[in-house]
Amino acid sequence: MDPAHRGSYATNGETRRSKRYSVNALYSMVAEQDVEVEDDLSKAQRRLRELKTKISVQSKKNFLLEKDVRFFDARIALLIQNRMALEEMREINSALEDTVVDDYVFPEDRRMQLYGNLFFLLQSEPKHIAALTRLVTLSEIDTLLQSVMFTIFGNQYESREEHLLLTMFQLVLSAQFETVTESGSLLRANTPVSRMMTTYTRRGPGQAYLKKVISHEINSILTRGDLNLEINPLKVYDELRQELEAQGIDPDDTYPRGITMETAMQHPQVQAIVQPRAVQLMEIAGRFLHVIFEQIDQVPYGIRWICKQIRSLTKRRYPNWQEFNISSLIGGFFFLRFLNPAIVTPHAYMLVEESPNKNPRRTLTLVAKLLQNLANKASFSKEPYMMMLNPFIDRNNDRINRFFNDLCEVGDFYESLEMDQYMALTKKDLSLNITLNEMYNTHALLVQHQEALAPSKDSHLRICLDDLGPAPVALPRSENLALELPLFSRWETPINVDLTTLSGESTVTQNDILFMDTKALFIQLIRSMAHFPGMNLDFANRLDLDGIADVAATSSDPILVRKGIKVREMLRELTEAGVVDRRDGYQLMLEELGQELVHLGSIRDTVYAEITSLDAVFKTICDHNQYLNSQLESYKAYLQNVRRGAGGSHGASSGGMAGAEHGHGHHGKKTAPPPSFKFTHLLLEKEGVIAESNVPDARKANIYFQIISPHPGSFVILLFFKGRESPILEMELTLDDLLEKQQDNIQLLDLEYVQLNVGRLLNLLNRNFLRR
């Protein structure tokens, strides 16, 4: 607190004024949260709170949908490539269907209370999640981020949750700087921490900034779809060859095949095309830079604050670093993690209606490369053809350094966070909108790492985890229901917190508290009675505080009557205590009321402006939600088409490997038997399907394999020894299993006696079972 604000309030006005602003924020927050006031400001604030909640809920839905789209997009690409059969498609399609569960039972009340306590602790003490993010693997981080960014700190426009989330970031970044061994990888490597920072930029405020600042420049490129700004000399050389081919001329005489990059760069025709394109690229990148520099005030506070922490931590960790090194690290976050992904893939960031065509897409990629190199202070050593763009780097080096410095010039929030935390303790309705699996998954991760997170048996986190016991297993998609989880703390008193302890000072007297309460009550009355006939609320002509109290006390509204009587009595007590003087019209109280009401007026204007801005954000997020849902619908339509075309594919009985026996099954039944093929050990070894074998050479002639497909895409591999009816080994697998192994570069499938080559086994199954 400022030294001028220290010391107890006295009865004289000067000392009283010096203390005024220490609780100014509290008045405003109380006024905002007063449910009994129904003026324009309170209605606008209620609408704004509702809008922020809708944005937070919708953002979480989009995050989950994006995960689904990524998963199915990758999976269906594999299935198309391998001609996935009917049953596997049914399995994926069923995962797309949302099932309604009528009779699911939520955890019992005591367990819900334990979870409410645990998540209050996680939210109000960000150190636990900060530590957890450093312990989880890359495969676990997306699930954790879903809970952290969109649930635990999910209200993206509520100051307390945002400040707590940023506190967590500070802890995570501090640990990252302490433990990093290679400065070049700081914030650039694909780690849980970098993934977390990228996800943070995708929240509502970041999306709104991108749409407002760079979407116009992106759309201006898209409108010129025929504009080709390719400057890679080899690609331009190929363009020249293709032009001749289109004219029916053999290009080999004029433009020989197989030239090097250096030769292409020196080619006169290539240079004539590339040089003006480079000039245009630099002009376009310059326009991007201009709007980014000009609208620095539009960058969300949280993103600027993270940049500030990066600068501060870098200076402490690397005191000998030059300013350009520090700027490079800030650029690694601001451009690499935030701006450039949106420039390269604007459709994914809801900045354009459709995915860009080839030429605009390449232009955007080159612009992003140019901006990234400027931000990184990097050379074009990996792509020497881009050296021609160095004039852009040279011209803008000083400007980008100034921008990064200015970007970091934001205040801290610790004082307001203290007030936010105090207000949270006085609330009775803190809650999270959370799914059961989010609770269970977070619980499971905490239990898994509890020795590192809470080594002491007496720590609050350890007590919570011990009370909860083992984490329940994750529920199927159809049972993963959402609920409203009330939050509370077992270790703090939620109401009647003593104001004298709020700032750590013990000099606030009872008269101070009475003065604050009286002022807050007058604010409520003035806001509630502004529409009363005959009410004089013009500060230029002095407010009549006694008159306001009398009008309220004699009104027909019982709530106003109680407040009027109460504030009249409080004003009398302040007069008797010498804090205010009736003879000067309570001048001290009038001054503070005047400033407070001006402050509330500016709040009203800010609220209206924020509503307008967030309405646009909400519409954009809803549009993106529709796009994601349409993507999933297109997957369903695709699967239905394949299902219609895949009927009878199991009837294929030909196409086995040479030398293989085909098992026909029994005749005379209405249902055809599942396809079955037999293969000798010697044959599979010769074809390379068996990569390694533990079977002695003398026995290999007596070993054979039978592969049955009981359902499309599902296989049973049986290993037989001639003369025995029962198999000596049996293994079930699906085509999907093999495809994932192949994608993960797992080359061998272990069958105990033999190891099969995954790629060659896939070829075998494709040839014999998946013929259309």
UniProtKB/TrEMBL annotation:
Disordered as annotated region, ranges: 648-672
Sorted UniProt keywords: Coiled coil
UniProt protein name: Putative ras GTPase-activating protein sar1
InterPro entries found in the cross-reference section: RasGAP_C, RasGAP_CS, RasGAP_dom, Rho_GTPase_activation_prot
Source organism per UniProt: Dimargaris cristalligena
Stretches assigned to the Ras-GAP domain: 160-376
Coiled coil: 34-61
Top-rank taxon, per record: Eukaryota
Pfam families: RasGAP, RasGAP_C
One annotated GO biological process: negative regulation of Ras protein signal transduction
Signal peptide bounds: none
Regions of compositional bias (Gly residues) in chain numbering: 648-658
Gene3D superfamilies: GTPase Activation - p120gap, domain 1
GO cellular component: cell cortex
A GO MF label: GTPase activator activity
